[in-house]
Design a protein that fits this description.
Blueprint: E1 7-10, E2 16-17, E3 33-36, H1 41-45, H2 75-81, E4 90-95, H3 101-114, E5 119-123, H4 128-137, E6 145-149, H5 153-161, E7 168-172, H6 189-206, E8 209-214, H7 227-231, E9 234-239, E10 246-254, E11 262-268, E12 271-274, E13 293-300, E14 303-315, E15 324-327, H8 331-345, E16 352-358, H9 370-382, E17 390-392, E18 395-396, E19 402-403, H10 408-417, E20 422-426, E21 437-441, H11 444-453
Parallel strand pairs: 4-8, 4-9, 5-6, 5-7, 7-8, 15-16, 17-20, 20-21
Antiparallel strand pairs: 1-2, 1-3, 9-10, 10-11, 11-12, 13-14, 14-16, 18-19
Bound molecules: thymidine-5'-diphosphate and magnesium ion (MG).
């Protein structure tokens, strides 16, 4: 009998090769190829075109049950989920270590459990004593959660099969789970995929809302195969700078709701507190305007959040290569914006170090941030503060034009509500806020003239 051919699967992108190599030919990552369990000889010999049962077709407009969502009681978590947990769905939650995933899920489980829902929390990373200590610190030790430390999926599913079906099941984390039907150590692609498959099948068959905690890699993607993201219904990421208090729960994929809503939390001494009105959170609250600081009315789903963008420019005397450091924004986008400012507006950043920081540990993903970043950079370069109480938004094109962005009226309304009296943005914006003076800009050069020209 011919020996089954070995397969190697890239742990980063999931591509398959038949020869081990140091570098994945698909994604270029190093040392990510690992041997995968081979397909069985049986499955290779048999065709799938006969011998099955006929599947049933239904009309698209066949009557469907409305989604019965279950609110967790943590309003910010429910908001990010699009209105609560859907029974029989699987959620993958990623986030840096120590960001607060276990804390958030323990708090959500405790809320549900106190509300009468059966909750099971399986910890594969921490001993039960550690989880109990955390619960005590959070003041949740009395919540009737069924807690266990386990890593064998067979043990977990056997146990779950012998008890009342829970409403909420947390697996913390999927990388620590192990299935004895699959070769390989916990955390390898085939183990992660196989364990997730079994757990998701259990959740779907029994109407359980399942949360799988997933580790993230250095570049922020969820460790293990991308297929994990395809297998689940919702992918969420819990973000924030560990040195800051604020945490943002974002949904990156949601089969049952929108993906642009966020939940905002603050990590306090007694766990995560919900932040219901985050629009002031990322502002310094300073009265005097400073050079290099611009306020950006960001939009997160339907909620506007005002964020302060800070820039610092340091002129270098020597010929050393200048540094560019960014916290909270995209590095490549900053390079692009600097290039546009140099080539379209005649500014010179080439011999200067550029530092950009988004206040409060917030991470900007809204493309409308371009103009606010440009305003902060020009203000820092000129060492002149921007007009006090002003907000800036708009997308900048490579040609240096300011392009329109979505929901300018929402951004301006929130800015006016928080006491800002002047807005700068694309010329086509609609300003529905009488208290706010809006100035449309068409070119980045208009911004430069305005900042450089004003005293
Ligand atoms: P944790 O939920 O263990 O993070 P993850 O599961 O994402 O790895 O959170 C750990 C961090 O949160 C830890 O560094 C301490 C902090 N923390 C608080 O500040 N207050 C608290 O009440 C708790 C429980 C944790
Ligand atoms: Mg944890």
């Amino acid at each position: 009998m011919a020996k089954p051919k070995k397969r190697y699967v890239c742990q980063a992108c999931g591509s398959v090769t038949h020869r081990w190599q140091g570098q994945c030919p698909e994604c270029g990552e190093w040392n990510t190829l690992a041997e995968d369990a081979p397909a069985t000889v049986f499955s290779q010999k048999h065709h799938l075109s006969s011998g099955g049962r006929a599947v049933e077709f239904v009309a698209l407009d066949a009557p469907a049950e409305p989604l019965a969502r279950r609110a967790t009681g943590l309003a910010e978590f429910d908001r990010a989920l699009g209105g609560g947990l859907v029974p029989g769905s699987a959620i993958l939650m990623g986030g840096d270590p120590g960001i607060g995933k276990s804390t958030l899920l323990l708090q959500a489980a405790a809320k549900i459990a106190k509300d009468g829902g059966q909750c099971v929390y399986i910890s594969g990373e921490e001993a039960t004593a550690q989880v109990r200590m955390r619960a005590e610190r959070l003041g949740l030790a009395d919540a009737p959660i069924r807690l266990a430390a386990a890593t064998s999926v067979r043990d977990i599913l056997t146990t779950l099969g012998g008890m009342d079906t829970p409403a909420f099941l947390v697996i913390d984390s999927i990388q620590t789970m192990h299935s004895d039907t699959i070769e390989g150590a916990p955390g390898t692609v085939s183990q992660v995929r196989g364990c997730a498959f079994e757990l998701i099948r259990y959740a779907k068959e029994n109407g359980v809302a399942l949360v799988l905690v997933g580790h993230v890699t250095k570049d922020g993607s969820i460790a293990g195969p991308r297929v994990l993201e395809h297998m689940v219904d919702v992918v969420m990421s819990f973000e924030g700078e560990r040195s800051h208090q604020y945490r943002i729960l974002r949904s990156l994929k949601n089969r049952f709701g929108p993906v642009d809503e966020i939940g905002v939390f603050a990590m306090e001494g007694k766990g995560l507190e919900e932040v219901a009105n985050p629009s002031m959170l990322f502002l310094s609250g300073r009265e005097e305007p400073l050079a290099g600081s611009a306020v950006f009315p960001a939009l997160e789903g339907t909620r506007p959040v005002l964020v302060e963008v800070q820039a610092l420019i340091v002129r270098l005397q020597s010929g050393a290569t200048p540094r560019r450091a960014v916290v909270g924004w995209d590095n490549g986008r900053l390079a692009m914006l600097l290039a546009v400012l140099e080539s379209r507006c005649g500014l010179n950043f080439s011999s200067a170090e550029v530092y950009l920081n988004v206040a409060g540990g917030y991470r900007l993903s809204d493309p409308a941030a371009d103009l606010a970043v440009a305003a902060a950079l020009v203000s820092a370069l000129a060492d002149k503060p921007l007009p006090g109480k002003s907000v800036w938004f708009g997308e900048v094109s490579l040609a240096g034009e300011i392009r329109p962005v979505a929901h300018s009226n929402l951004r301006l309304r929130e800015s006016a509500k928080l006491g800002f009296d002047c807005g700068f943005g694309p010329s086509e914006a609609d300003n529905g806020s009488p208290g706010l003076n809006y100035r449309g800009l068409t070119q980045l050069a208009n911004l430069v003239d305005r900042v450089m020209g004003s005293q």
